[in-house]
Amino acid sequence: MDTASTRTPRPPVTVRTAAVWAVLRRELDRHPGTELTVLDVGGGTGGFAVPLAELGHTVTVVDASPDALAALTRRAADAGVADRIRAVQGDGDALAGLVEPGTADIVLCHAVLEVVDDPAEVVAAIGTALRPGGAISLLVASRAAAVLGRAFNGHLGAASALLNDADGRAGQRDTLRRRYDADTAAALLGTAGFTVEEIHGVRVLADLLPAAVVEGDARAMLELELALAARPPFRDIASQLHLFARHP
Known about the structure:
Blueprint: E1 2-3, H1 18-29, E2 34-35, E3 37-41, H2 49-54, E4 58-63, H3 66-79, E5 85-89, E6 104-110, H4 119-129, E7 130-141, H5 143-152, H6 156-164, H7 182-191, E8 195-202, H8 211-216, H9 218-229, E9 240-246
Parallel strand pairs: 3-4, 3-6, 4-5, 6-7
Antiparallel strand pairs: 1-2, 7-9, 8-9
Helix pairs in contact: 5-6
């Protein structure tokens, strides 16, 4: 890890990303003045990668979509951080063959485990990619939120299927292969040797309330979202669950 030469203002925070950024900022603040090496698995167009690069860190983004990586490259260039971001085309399932072992300080794995063939294999590969003491930021779809969402919209059969399916799917047409609750996601990380330090709900209210309410009083909405993010049962009905864990 090298000394970072520049720092810019805090990354843009919205109601939908606030809980994740709050955790990431605490981790970054543990290493003041240090350039960290970040691996963003499934990082797409750089919603997290570019702000992290603007903060002085180096980021490798692995994504299967060439279009997303092209957009990432343009976005990084526009932000003046092209030299801090590397784009690698590949699937999360092939992660072990795409990155060097023991090179990452932080790995972001957001909205990936829901679609890969073998989540346990991906998490194990992330553990291998991390330096000792490195951390994973894991964001997964919540089963509880999906059940409630379908029930509220009158799709009771789909809600029941989601509730009872072993992987949290709503039938063969479901676009996701699996969903999680806090216990199943934590167990997956634990099996790979990670110690879970924090669990938060992401978009506890943001996906439930009308846009006019969410946008009407942005500060109050943000404060309430963050207040609910770590408190069960509110945490557990969020659209996504964010787990932050450390590898020995």
